[in-house]
UniProtKB/TrEMBL annotation:
Name assigned to this protein: SmpA / OmlA family protein
Record organism: Vibrio xiamenensis
Source organism phylogeny: Bacteria, Pseudomonadati, Pseudomonadota, Gammaproteobacteria, Vibrionales
Keywords carried by this UniProt record: Membrane, Transmembrane, Transmembrane helix
Membrane-traversing stretches: 6-23
Amino acid sequence: MFTLIGFIIIYIVSLTIENMFFLHKENKLLNKYGDEEVVEKIIKGLVWQGQTEEQLIDSVGRPTFVVHDYNESSVNVIWRYEHSRPKTGRYRSWGVPSPNFDVFIDNGKVVSWEITNK
């Protein structure tokens, strides 16, 4: 009986701490950007046109690679996100693996993105 009560207390405390961290992150982003819509998109981990590089990092993290594609008239910047292959056996990942994707940036803002099968 006491162990069940102890587990319940630990569970409630862990949920409370998790909620506090979430609210802290949300408030920090709101102070940083001052726009609730932007903060909501960042918390959901979204990528959108017009998003700044800093917002992209806050939303999905730093890219695995940054590719500079030099053309005759301009430089295209591609942020490449590659996730490791799903593990098998004892140490496999239980969630759905995140897709690999490229984000195309022009003048510090997202112009497009695509999911890759690399």
